[in-house]
What does this fold into?
Amino acid sequence: MSKSAKKRAAAPSASPGAATARVPLAKGVAKPPKAEPNTKQSHVIAMLQSPTGATIAAMMKATGWQQHSVRGFLAGVVRKRLKLKLGSRKVDGERVYQIVGADGGKPASRSFKQQGS
It folds into this structure.
């Protein structure tokens, strides 16, 4: 028996499409959030929601990520996917990031408004 004949004989005969069948979501129904507690991402978001905010160095230490990974998380997940407003300010020469407006709709503090507006 050739090698290709052996592979065909050993392959399971599953019905086509049985494992890949998807049920479409109804329009207007949002996917449930996939935020799991005690993950690195949830920990960073909690740091950003704190009144003091967080520096990139603090997020790097808490997660073990490299600097470019933290920046990518801030831009890709926090800003784009979660659509949270991320503000930053300089404190003692260090950039501190914080999620703005996470306190129940109260106006953001003046130190987080963008410069030049």
Notes: Residues 67-81 form the longest helix (15 residues). The chain has a mean pLDDT of 78. The helical segments are 3-10, 40-49, 56-63, 67-81. The first strand starts at residue 54 and ends at 55.
